[in-house]
Design goal:
alpha+beta, 5-stranded antiparallel beta sheet, globular, 8% strand
Amino acid sequence: MSLRTYWRFVAVVRQFLPLALTYARDRRRFLLFGRSRSVSSQQRRDRAERLLQSLLTLGPTFIKLGQLLSTRPDVLPPEYVEEFSKLQDSVPPADWEKAQAVIEDELGTVEERFSEFNTEAISGASLGQVYYAEVGDDPVAVKVRRPGVEQLVESDLQVVQWLLPIILYFVDDARSFSLETLADEFATTIREEMDYEREAEMLTEIRGNFTAEEGIRIPPVVQTHSTRRILTMEYIEGTKINDVEELDRRGVDRTALAENLERAYFQMIVEDGVYHADPHPGNLAVQDDGTLVFYDFGMSGRVDAYLQDRIIDFYMAVADQDIDAILDALIAMGTLSPEADRQVMAEVMELAIADARGEDIGQYRVQQIIQKVEDTIYEFPLRLPSNLALVLRVATVVEGVCVTLDPEFDFIDVATDFLREEGYLEESAREFVRDRVEEVGQAGRSAVRIPPKLETTLDRIDRDDFYVRADLEDSDGLLDALAARLVLGLFATGGFVSTAVLYSFSTVRATLLSLLVTLLVLFGLYRSFRQRQSIRAKPQFTRQNMRQRDETGQPDSPAIGADGPVSDEEAKSPTEDRWT
């Protein structure tokens, strides 16, 4: 292993050690002993902010890790997910001389391959940076992998593997598996994002799916000037999609633009099965005629046919406000465990829809409903498949952009119209009829089979030959805890009796020894009642604590770049982050 990897390990540990000690004290107040501490929502938020700053300090790999963690509410509490969602992949570009060396290694001299090349980067990100150039008379954007980033990423991935067993010590068993799979997923994701040949393939495929759409424009790849470390595309000008004032000045219909954006993503996810997975405003632009432009396909994903059908089921259930159908869809997608308390989850969904709709408006936000689901996932905890995590995050970000364009935008109404126009509603109706017919057939077969079985059962009851066997599930070890307390109680009782007898008939030393043993048993009994694993029922997820969390929630903070908060002027920049 290289010396650089060991130095990175020391740097990472130095950044994370204070927080690790804090988490250790949450489990044991005095590190080696003591009871656990309760942590408030505000304390979690403060820690999330400190952790986010550590990720920014450690650079590209950990910025990407934070972005991935922001899609995993089954791994982190809601406060962390919210903070990490503010991460913007924007860092100062590397020196031109270093970037030039990468270009010349891949393509040859800049003067020979490009008729013009602006050495000032138009944007920079953690893994790559983009330059304006011309090939012949055609303007192009040249995306260059950041010099030396491959070695840095590989060192950091090794550090993550070293740290993983330590991190697993601070989490419960329910999340340890999620973290291990997340580490593997992260290694795959970041290597794919550094592979510009893969990005070119995904971009070309998605662009091919929109060739008939006049309101969508995706820059084509210039294959002759693209390699694994260089990606050259047509350069397309546009106004940043969240620059509302500029869009109004140019006369763009923002409501129509929001509808076009949502329909584009529904086509990618529900119909095509391959989608652009990074729809933040820096990667979306608008031309003067309202055409929507997509940039940066480094983060992109695929959706299999089964998950596409379940996503349709979910949106249709939300549109109909059918709580049971929403739960069925979430279980089918693998988000909720089939063993989850359905009544509690139904209350969560009812409250989510009620909060999202409000009392005075007809439309409601999918983003709020998904947020409630994500919060619930951590509280229970449940699971969130990696292929679905990114889709959910894309849905919430896209809806956020749509609402920025039009505060009265009805996401569900547009989704329902899209599904109806594409024939999914009719197909769902046909499936409903087929299911009901099948149920009627099953009911008929059951009506024939049940009487003989019922008669046999009644005969056995009449002969006193009927037995019922019950298996008790004790996954939390509550029966073991109860048995241990009974045994300790018996020992304590015996100890008191023994101490009294010894005090009357024996020596002081024997009495003190018996008293000491009895006190130790009593302390063990006391500790068993103070532990968090209790015989008493545990509250799961109530309307009250959801309300309390909503009431103590913090207002949204500004986006954060690698160098700190992003100002409003930077957020409105028409060129920032488009190509990275």
